[in-house]
Amino acid sequence: MLSVAVCVCTKLRPQGLAALLDSLSRQEDPVGPDHEPVDVRVVVVDNDAEPSARAGVEARTGDRWPVVYVHEPVPGIPAARNAAVAAALSQPCDVLLFLDDDERADPAWLRTMLEVRRTTGAEVVTATVEPEFEPGAPAWAVQGGFYERPRFATGTEIGYARTSNVLIDTRLFTQDGLRFEHTGSQGGEDTHFFAQAVARGRRIVWADEAVVRETVPASRISVRWLVARSYRYGLTRSASLRLLGGTPLRYARRVVNGLLTVLRGLVLVVVGRGRIGRTKGLQEVALGAGLVLGLVGATYDDYRTVHGR
């Protein structure tokens, strides 16, 4: 029987966590490689200094699958993710999945993720995250596509993934010895983790129909937040290159790419139409700056503020 652990790292988002756990209880029946039943458990890792999520998790009744609560007081997403991995591997576990505590999984999510794993043989499956805005969100934020993520046809092999909607074969932990390493206060440990997996020959494929929905809180709807996110993304990409030991040629290419991205962004700032166009230009400038500065170890703390409830 296939053994599956669905892992959720949480911090001070009781409403979001409850909504996510509710969505997991509404999942369609998942099936294993030979269409046999699947053993599923849910691991919740509370990364608050105090076990603030314990009461809410332990008070739940009627959940479809067992929910295991783990308190990880060491601050930081890498510590929380690694605690989730340790809890999942404390029992037989073939497949581990990560979701965020501000997401909700569509009913076919788990079944689809396992099916794509079975049909492709990939060690990592990542999938769609669709934004959902709170009432009253400004039109420019919704129409600009700032919170949309790229999508691909199911089965497409891609070179990256995030832990916001991903399936991982546990051999990456037990055989390859991978863990989520601290890469700096800007985060991006998942970017580096999956870059290491690809470097070891592991495959990452896309599952377009395995949809989760992410709440976009009002605190994230600002030009400042969007620009900071682009800067952080540039930093994390280059931090991963630095940690993987990139060659001088790859460093040079990254610098050139970063500078060209800055120039392209400056042009968009000048000629872009309205707030949407100018914001996209500023994002390009920030991304390019992050690509360059990340090579020399620059950091940015994007996780001091908890967005959402």
Folded structure, characterized:
This protein is an alpha/beta fold and 309 residues long. The protein folds into two domains: 2-217, Spore Coat Polysaccharide Biosynthesis Protein SpsA, Chain A (Alpha-Beta Complex); 223-296. The protein has helices spanning 14-25, 54-58, 77-89, 109-120, 139-143, 171-174, 189-199, 223-243, 248-271, 274-293; strands at 2-10, 38-46, 67-71, 95-100, 103-105, 124-133, 157-158, 165-169, 204-216. Helix 2 links the parallel strand 2 (38-46) and strand 3 (67-71). Helix 7 runs parallel beside helix 8, helix 8 (223-243) runs parallel beside helix 10 (274-293) and helix 9 (248-271) runs antiparallel to helix 10.
CATH class of the largest domain: Alpha Beta
Per CATH, the architecture of the largest domain is Alpha-Beta Complex
CATH topology of the largest domain: Spore Coat Polysaccharide Biosynthesis Protein SpsA, Chain A
The tally of beta strands, per DSSP, is 9
Keywords: Glycosyltransferase, Transferase
Family: Belongs to the glycosyltransferase 2 family.
GO molecular function: glycosyltransferase activity
Pathway: Cell wall biogenesis; cell wall polysaccharide biosynthesis
List the helices and strands and how they pair.
Layout: E1 2-10, H1 14-25, E2 38-46, H2 54-58, E3 67-71, H3 77-89, E4 95-100, E5 103-105, H4 109-120, E6 124-133, H5 139-143, E7 157-158, E8 165-169, H6 171-174, H7 189-199, E9 204-216, H8 223-243, H9 248-271, H10 274-293
Parallel strand pairs: 1-2, 1-4, 2-3, 6-9
Antiparallel strand pairs: 4-8, 5-9, 6-8, 7-9
